């Protein structure tokens, strides 16, 4: 009889182990759902257009090192190049060129722009960045990384780019 009781208890436990997980809630938690949404969005938004200009093509249009300022390229990929601007060895700004063909909505910031540099529309992007749009395609940005680097400094460095040369890439 004892043996039969153990057998019944063992069989019952085995059944519960099989049945209970099937009855559980398989709905992903809010965290799992958010993670999957992020992964899905990243796979849609990280594509670079095959028509994007190679990053190396932008390098020659950047301002050169000048006086106490040194330009150091830090990132280069299709459709984008970035350099750090150092003053007396300290990072004060980043300089960048981005081909908006991969993200046309980036041009929206320049709709209704009142200002111009070199004949191209300029826009303030928050309190630390100034950008202009060349040939309705290439966004050139100077972003302050140090509080001493002002809007006037950013605009002066934007003007030092070879903007007409950059426009000829289009």
Question: Secondary-structure map with pairings?
Answer:
Layout: H1 2-23, H2 30-45, E1 69-77, E2 80-87, E3 90-99, E4 115-117, E5 120-125, E6 129-134, E7 138-144, H3 151-160, H4 163-167
Antiparallel strand pairs: 1-2, 2-3, 3-7, 4-5, 5-6, 6-7
Please characterize this protein's 3D structure.
A seven-stranded antiparallel beta sheet has the order 1-2-3-7-6-5-4. The mean pLDDT is 84. The chain is built from four helices and seven strands. The longest helix has 22 residues. Helices cover 31% and strands 29% of the residues. It is of the alpha+beta class and 170 residues long. It has two domains: 44 residues, no CATH class; 113 residues, Protein Transport Mog1p, Chain A, CATH 3.40.1000.
Structural features:
170 residues, Protein Transport Mog1p, Chain A, alpha+beta, elongated
Uncertain segments: none
Question: Sheet with the most strands?
Answer: 7 strands, antiparallel
CATH class bucket of the largest domain: Alpha Beta
Q: What coarse outline follows from CA principal-axis ratios?
A: elongated
Protein name: Photosystem II oxygen evolving complex protein PsbP
Keywords: Signal
Provide a concise account of the structure shown.
This protein has 170 residues and is α+β, with helices and mostly antiparallel strands. It has helices at 2-23, 30-45, 151-160, 163-167, and strands at 69-77, 80-87, 90-99, 115-117, 120-125, 129-134, 138-144.
